[in-house]
Amino acid sequence: MSRTILVYGQSGAGKTTSCRNLDPASTYFIDCDGKGLSWRGWRKQFCADNHNYFRTDELDPARRNSVPFILKTIATDDRCKHIKTVVVDGISTLMVTDEFRRRKEKGFDKYQDLAACIFETVKHAADFRDDLTVVFIGHVDIERDQNGNEVFSQVRTSGQKLKRIVLESLFTTVLYAKNDANQFFFETQPVRSTAKSPVDALPPTMPNDIAQVIKLLQDYEEG
Questions:
Q1: Residue 220 pLDDT > 80, yes or no?
Q2: Residue 197 confidence (pLDDT) above 80
Q3: CATH classification of 3-222, choosing from 3.30.70, 3.40.1620, 1.10.10, 3.40.50?
Q4: pTM of the prediction?
């Protein structure tokens, strides 16, 4: 049983940058946004020559360049056993891109297909080998009151089926990335949000460092 983590937040909240301390030798980065990473020297750390970086926004598991196919390959191929962390950045882009590609299709089947693909991708990621962590990064939907104050936040999804599924319910660790006066941090417990983490595993707020999150979760799980 692998470890899955969901990170969500607004653009500029430090979601991608939170991966800066992951070891390139044991990390594979799937760049769905196609915007590259966001720290000094990342091109030398993550690139095709290092076999640890790939750009794709394809969701169809039948295609070899799709996120589900790549995840399954990393989890099952003996040549990928050195990979301990996979980052999928970002899951919201996958949903929007799939919906846009199929915009000329009539009916609701395309939304059912989208919901099934996202659900199965996330669900199956939790069934991979025990030493693997899969980090999904997404955008946020924020509900505000008439004065513009934040009332509630959750990960952004496409279509009513995914809203009913509640994507966060598939994770035990959901991190809300925030930026307050250029202080970047994670909320790990629900404060008008769907953030959550195992009891006593993480502090309520912590630096936006995925490597630190994974270390704390490993220590917690090992007791």
A1: yes
A2: yes
A3: 3.40.50
A4: 0.93
